[in-house]
Amino acid sequence: MEGLAMTGSLTDTEKGLLSIIVLEMGVSSRLAAYLKKGERVVVMGPTGTPTTIPKGENVLLAGGGLGNAVLFSIADALKKNGNKVIYFAGYKNTSDVYKMDEVESGTDQVIWSNDKGDKIIPRRKQDLTFTGNIIESMIADNKGELGEKSIDLKNIDRIIAIGSDRMMKAVKDARYSSLKNILNEHVAIGSINSSMQCMMKEICAQCLQKHIDPATGKETFVFSCFNQDQLLDNVDFDNLNQRLKSNSVLEKLSNYFLTYLLSKNDFKKMDLKVSERSESILEGH
Question: Which of 78, 110, 219, 260 is packed most tightly, with the most Cβ within 10 A?
Fold first, then answer.
């Protein structure tokens, strides 16, 4: 498999354990599911700049779908550093929710939301639920329609958004439209999911992200591999969307072909070495 850009989930320094979540999105991440217990893997890093963990702030975390896979570790660090944390966890479907224990442990309050399916049932008395998108859940929470508020949104000092490029753009735009009269001055950060390739910090330029200064209109470029956490106001999300689509065709073809190979072979009984049968299939296509 190719190298994968991963985000660490949890660490246990006493046991010497590093926990990483792999989201099965493409060929290499799907192949990771077939790694066996005891099989050796190579982990290079950490690379890039760590997320800034302030002290004594009111922090709003906005997680969209897959972005929730990494936000709970940030929430835990924020809570341990004396911050008050409200977490808006948004999903498309109720069935997409996972790691509820970890999400809850690092937060003062969680507002669960989903677009489809049954309402997500909160397990703590202070947590709330909403049917709709994550921006709508913020508006409803501010109006007090969901229940008792843990933190008034006007007191938020920092927003950290992690999700799809469309979700983070929605958070950026809402701060100047539907949330404009709700939020006061704050810092807004997005974890930018640029395409990654070399993992060697500022070498291949696959992860270049265009920025536009909102005050001057000046264009600059940054390497997302060096620092994924970027000011939402500066990120050109149209540019990001275009770059993410640049490998779309190859990714889809590779994914379809892996599905085809898996249908022809019982990979669960294999050592993940390319079999003669797989080689013949590859040569024939």
Answer: 110
